[in-house]
């Protein structure tokens, strides 16, 4: 027969195992999102904060979870295709990120780059 102390210990071990599993999943998701930001930065010629803004915008305006948008973007080079909803959302998300970052900089009184050096 399992005593109350053993039940408590078992419950605590189970809770800790669940927490470790959640943390592992969070690490995987974080790495995936970072890679997707890199894809968006490369495609759109954006800065890191703009890449994050574009990724969030795509998720919000396609009703696709951020992790799923990120997965599709990371797999895009190997698969050579994007789901239609993400493919259509990408240009608008890039433009949104550029405009939003520019508006934020103006509000903060910062200089805004006028274009790429060339």
From TrEMBL:
Superkingdom assignment: Bacteria
Domain ANTAR per the UniProt entry, residue ranges: 13-74
Pfam families documented for this protein: ANTAR (PF03861)
Protein name: ANTAR domain-containing protein
SUPFAM superfamilies per UniProt: CheY-like (SSF52172)
